[in-house]
Write the structure tokens for this entry.
Amino acid sequence: MKADRSGGVERQLRDAAPHALFDVARALIEARFDAVTVDLLMADYAMTRLQPVAKLPRTTTPLPLNSSAAGRAFGAQEPHIVAETGNRAPTVTVHLPVSVRGDRLGVLSVTLPGTEPAPTTVEALQEIADALAHEIMVAERDTDLFLLARRAERLTLAAEMQWQLLPGRSCSRTEYSIGAQLEPAYAIYGDNFDWSTSADHLTLSANNGMGEGIEAALLTNLAVNALRNARRAGLSLADQASLADQAVYGHYAGRQYLSMLLFRFHLPTGRAEVIDAGSPRVWRMRQGVVEPVELEAQLPLGMFEDTVYTPQHFQVEPGDRLLFVSDGVYDVPSPSGERYSERALIRAVRDTRLLPPSQVPRAVLEELAGHRGPGPSEDDAMVVCLDWHGRPDGSQQGTGQV
């Protein structure tokens, strides 16, 4: 029965028109569970609110991510149940995370009659939420509905380009978990990140773009797509950096360039290659000790013609947490002019040690905003958090090729 139920839902969602995907899901839930209401909420670009998926103008009020029942399900990535009793017939609302491979998209909130849903009902609703998440990722290629729901305000054109370039904001696999965030979310310029995984490798890049507005976004798009093109051609990490360097220099002739960290992790062993082409910087927390990872800085991509890049080797151990931060974190001044220091960053890393990687970047950037005080940010800020778990057998002594 379970297989028939979930399979039937998946088929109907796959057959739905992209813009009607949630309408189909809502009709299925209402029919099968006698639901009173069904709402789909998407996390906004700043990861501070849950925005309703509805035809404009919206009639549902956005919810704060940090202080709402739906936000609790989003943060914990587990169903959260809230019973409501009063003068009317009792109802219970089940808030369910909508996520794909660790990438947190939003929350599906279903209000049912009664006081407590059966565990099988919650399980069935979570299956629908999981199926809906997968279909949303596919539907976004063909409809703007879900992208519009993520917007608490209008994106600048540069920000539109940058968000469309990203692989997601979090992901997880047996060997690792990643979370990342950019600020100012609705007016980001050149900072960006990218990742890709295969059977035995994770390739991750974090860059600190040069310039402002459209020019910064164009520079980042050129560099990231050059790296992807080289990676998909099967080139080595050094050759990936060289091809991106040539692409940027060929277009800008040294007038603009891009600082980037490029990592390639070997999943069975934790061995990694890294190319430090300028910045951002890397911090590691191992057994409670937070310290910078000292790397040999090489030239930024596109600064000079035909730059040769040499990978350095790096080892991660199960339990390690790596934090990649751009200059927009270090250089933020307080209202009195005091710069956000390394000491403050170390404190932020320690304060967020119990949070999963998907929540760490937002927490660090919120502390940064508190340091900055009121007023807009003067520079992009990027935080990427990587937790290394290792392979289930615990073996990190392998000598597989990196």
